[in-house]
Amino acid sequence: MRLSTVILPVRRWSEGGKEVWQRAEELGFHAAYTYDHLSWRSFRDQTWFGAVPTLTAAAAATSRMRLGTLVTSPNFRHPVTLAKELISLDDISDGRFTLGIGAGGNGFDATALGHEAWSPRERADRFAEFTALLDELLTQDAVSYRGEHYSADEARNIPGCVQRPRLPFAVAATGPRGLKLAARYGQAWVTTGDPKVANAGGTPAESREAIRGQIERLEKACADLGRDPAELRKIMLTGFSPDRPLESLDAFVDFAGSHAALGFDELVVHWPIADSVFEADTAVFERIATEGLAQLGAR
């Protein structure tokens, strides 16, 4: 089991932003991710910086911890320009970068470029084309492509990724088409649980049962492609299920144990942000970071 964190880009680099990423490395987190949004929910009218510049700065300020997005989506990204940025990030971080990738949703990113929000079907169509083209761009020196939604004309990506054949994809998906993409292109699969359970006031046990169903569907998608599902790491992004793993060290250890039993090998917790949905006791958070997995192993 690995423990990672999400650091939202809400701090000026000169006013604590840099120190947070360095502290995450000091605490021993396996990876530190950030959201790749133009703005997000309750933070819409507050400070919010871009993911790529933030991760570039974090790569220069750290040396061991992996870095990544949770998640990038087609909402305001194009595979050709994104591929160039990802190759640069992989180089600057010396091969420590993971791309979390998903279909996106109907949040602020969906309309920020001046178009109507895409339907669920169009999001799924774009996600499939986006992921396939990005895979090609990150593994080939030159790519030409004409698709329904995206095109590339002799797009050059020399020298390619430090990580070979390309940097890893952590594919966020719960629907059948997304799970097929995870099975085909992913080195990891990401879930936040089942939003229907959380929105209906469900219990942690009901959440685990829903996630068990997601994993079964992922395994079927792998089987359909002839892939061993054990090849995919399973990542749980916490904070969106009925569980409250940051309430105490014991709560975290219980949560980690129950999700390890489901097959997860990486848990991601949000770095505390005061006066927000991610508010948490900093002292408890740091104890979880430094002691949580050790206590899990001792049980």
Kindly describe this structure.
The structure is a single chain. Helix 2 (51-61) runs parallel beside helix 3 (79-92), helix 4 (120-137) packs parallel to helix 5 and helix 5 (176-185) packs across helix 7. The longest helix is centred in the C-terminal third of the chain and has 22 residues, at 204-225. The protein has helices spanning 17-26, 51-61, 79-92, 120-137, 176-185, 195-199, 204-225, 249-262, 282-298, and strands at residues 2-6, 31-34, 66-72, 97-101, 142-146, 151-156, 169-172, 188-191, 233-237, 266-270. Helix content is 40%, strand content 17%. It is built from nine helices and ten strands. The model has no long low-confidence stretch (mean pLDDT 97). It has 299 residues and is an alpha/beta fold. The strands form two sheets. An eight-stranded parallel barrel has the order 1-2-3-4-7-8-9-10, surrounded by four helices. Strands 5-6 form a two-stranded antiparallel sheet.
